[in-house]
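ok posting inputs for the 2-acetamido-2-deoxy-beta-D-glucopyranose job
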Amino acid sequence: MDTTASLSILLLLFGISVANPVRKPEPPAFVPIPGNVDITTKFLETNKGSSERLMHGDIVIPKTRNALYCLNNNCFWKKNSKNLVEVPYIVSSSYSSADISVIQNAMSTFHNKTCIRFVPRVNQTDYISIEDKDGCYSYLGRIGGQQLVSLKRTGCLYHGIIQHELNHALGFYHEHTRSDRDKYVKINWEYIPTDKASNFQIQNTNNQNTTYDYSSIMHYGKTAFSNTVGKDTITPIPNAAVEIGQRQDMSNIDILRINKLYGCV
Ligand SMILES: *[C@@H]1O[C@H](CO)[C@@H](O)[C@H](O)[C@H]1NC(C)=O
Ligand SMILES: *[C@@H]1O[C@H](CO)[C@@H](O)[C@H](O)[C@H]1NC(C)=O
Ligand SMILES: *[C@@H]1O[C@H](CO)[C@@H](O)[C@H](O)[C@H]1NC(C)=O
Ligand SMILES: [Zn+2]
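and the output
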């Protein structure tokens, strides 16, 4: 056996994947949502029939604690001695290594542009558990102990959706529920079913002096929860043509807000 072969076997034994020139190429780690579907349409469709009690489409309501009270620093993740904010995570064994690389690539945007560090959990008490459950959803902020981030294999493993759910876990609400949203979007209540109206309720958000961001990854799309085909529930004002509900990547303002909220400098 030559050295290369024995080295490969050794690496495989340790579970390390080595680049093999004859293997089929891996799917790209950056997976955009296919087709002309915005982020809300995609995850609301995926979350239909989810067993969790979901607020605003994809935020889990804790059974023991009200997620709405995320106003004190208790629900944020803590900085370590190096001024980095560690968010320990574990991932379910039902994901493939390609799935995991999509998740890790979405995390790498946070690592590259903010002081947030998603780190594999060792023994930390508070951590997120990324699991292939029945939809794309997350708790809001750090709730203490293990907390679920559900990323269903079929429907949620997209760069933008992963970032969206991780942003909830960091403590961010949806942009269209911001305290000052009525200046920037009109909510068309006539197309919103009564039992879905709470998804459009204004929250007492800390806007951190950042401008309203139509391009936020946390903004719902125009037709979110609409009960009438062709009718929008959210209309940007004054210019109704402004795009909302983008699904590709965090915006510069999304990144700025993380940096402000967590005091990354
Ligand atoms: C983050 O930076 C690393 C190292 O430069 C790079 O390989 C990776 O693609 C970046 N991630 C994103 C999502 O831009
Ligand atoms: C985790 O392990 C480290 C090193 O062994 C130890 O110092 C630390 O107290 C442990 N933390 C918890 C939460 O158990
Ligand atoms: C927002 O700006 C005002 C006035 O410049 C300042 O007093 C306040 O501390 C700022 N708030 C935040 C959260 O940065
Ligand atoms: Zn959401």
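notes: DSSP finds six helices and nine strands in the chain. Residues 1-28, 64-69 have pLDDT under 50 and may be disordered.
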